[in-house]
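Model: You mentioned two targets. I'll fold them one after the other.
Researcher: Yes, keep them separate.
Model: Target one:
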Amino acid sequence: HLSRIISSMPEHVKVISTIMENGSETPIVFDSQGIINCSEINIATNIHEIKKDKTNFLCIKHKWHIGSVDELLWQLKGTSTYFTASGKGESSSHDVYSGACGGVMGDICTVKRFTPVVIDASKGYEDLIKEPNIYPDPLYPFVPSSTEYLDEAVDIMSYALRRRLNHLGSDKVVIGVSGGLDSTLALLIADNVILNKKDIIGITMPGLGTGSTTRTNAEILMNQLGIDSRSISIENAVLQHFKDINHDNETHDIAYENAQARERMQILFDVSNMEKAINIGTGDMSEAMLGFTTFGGDHLSMYNINIGVPKTLVRALVLHFAWRIPRISSILTSIATTPISPELIPGKQETETIVGSYKANDFAIYHTIVSNMDRGALSSLLKMVGLHLNLDDFYRRITNSQFKRNCSADGVPVTRCFVDDFILPSDCKNIF
């Protein structure tokens, strides 16, 4: 039917679409001036074009993040609107599209994700549209409380990785597994997406500051998931490197730490080339915003699945997987409760004593990017909620690390906030 309609259209026609209901089609034709021949229906390509006095057909490229489908429904409340959005197969480097489609009639709706659905108004509507309460705890503005929204975060990351693997034509991935939160989440997403577990190559790379707890946790997790588990020590390679550059290996400075991160990344990249695989990055959004990554080390990857996930949400998702997969619950709980550490120098080294608590940092990141708060407002709000954060250090870090974010690997937003929403000139100072 559509092919016959299209073939009958004059040459100046630009776009043709159709509404199908009860077996009949209503053609909607856009000519070169953007005019349509169906006056009873309002065609909209964004939410602001919806008209309450007409039946609307909304066709959008709807970016998917936690709760965005529910937010869309709430925006359409009180209208008569059929909507359809770009689907998962149309996702690209920095976006996953929701694939939502359905109808809203007043305060009730139907919605289905990912697959086309035939809308039949005669069957009635099932779901009341409620105002979404996505992030109920103001102290954790990135962490949804409901398992439904946590599942949605897993789906977003999984569809993003699946799209990239389909594009490359291979399911083989290489992940550096440290036994920490970030690499655990990346590994769990890969496990959720890839059927043949031996296509997942997990490599633990003990170095000069690696602790026994994280190394053991990494090995247990990889074994329980049944992936291709490998261990490659970087100690000899790093010590040789220190000799090559005439560095005293007793001096635990920035070069001492960064040399280990860069050696690990070299291994991951080269093994990926050998295996015809893609290296999956593990660095999260909080680290990217604070610049707590080694440039040319863990700052790099071939695809960074975690770049849209703040640290507080990383922890929540690891614990959510512990609930979803009882057989690995114990090891995931152990990983989630282990103090966060870069483990680049011998002895105890905890990240939150260096950059401040991730709870406070994520709170500040959210209100800097989403709420667009200036320094005075953020300082007052932190005091009001009882969070402590060195704002001098916070603003120095997010400003000075812009050059790293400018050349980060592809990744997708998972919450309403993303690193690409905060862009500065790399050489600006004293802006906060």
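Model: Target two:
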Amino acid sequence: MDWFHFTGITPALGPNVVEICKEACKAAKAHNVKISCDLNYRGKLWTREQARAAMTELCQYVDVCISNEEDAKDVFGIEAENTDIYGGELNHEGYKSVAKQLADKFGFEKVAITLRESHSAFDNGWSAMLYDVKSGEYCFSKKYELHIIDRVGGGDSFGGSHIVMSCKQLRGDMNYAWPTAEIAVMGGAGAVEVLYAKEAKASDDPAKVLQEKEAEYNKLFCNPYNAARYGYIDDVIEPRNTRFRVIRALQQLATKKVVNPAKKHGNIPL
């Protein structure tokens, strides 16, 4: 093995996983294997304090650190000054500072930072920076202006789970959800950063505005009731009734027959 990579999501899965990651890093070091880590902070998996304690320990073994401005701040309290990703403005000097602070703190060989500018919900500027500690050089990639058709990131988990769990659009027969289910295009945090970026920027306390809007968004949209209203699910059920409702649905569908239109040709790989 030439390279070992892990992300901040892995140790967040449980206290024992932090120790497992640490042992894996030690083994990789013992065999002269390069180690990279994407900080990838997820607030629903652990607190910032837990992340900082665990990642501080693990990053002692890391050669290449991958991050963005939000994760660097959430995990280690390191941030780029005079930068507003939501207003479509990036300060290159600020990101150089973030990369150098990370490298100085942990002795990384290289630090890669992904940069995103949100012009609107569907138009983003994407680029990246690589800081090479040995040469002291900061390399910025070309900026790509992208029009987003299907948002990546948080939307992957929402949209992907909706598809693989046999949604109505794929002819699923019965779709049930527990009251705690979240059926939405995006999570609250990502959505409000896009929807209320200008409003937050114009306020005296942007963080407080985004926090309030996130709570409002989660209350209105991150629940199964809107999906039920539009017919995407058949019913919102209590967890204790799950077995009964599934059995009844299977009994109801026991004699179902599906007749599809005749195919004119095979589905060859193209």
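Researcher: Noted. Anything on target two?
Model: Residues 15-30 form the longest helix (16 residues).
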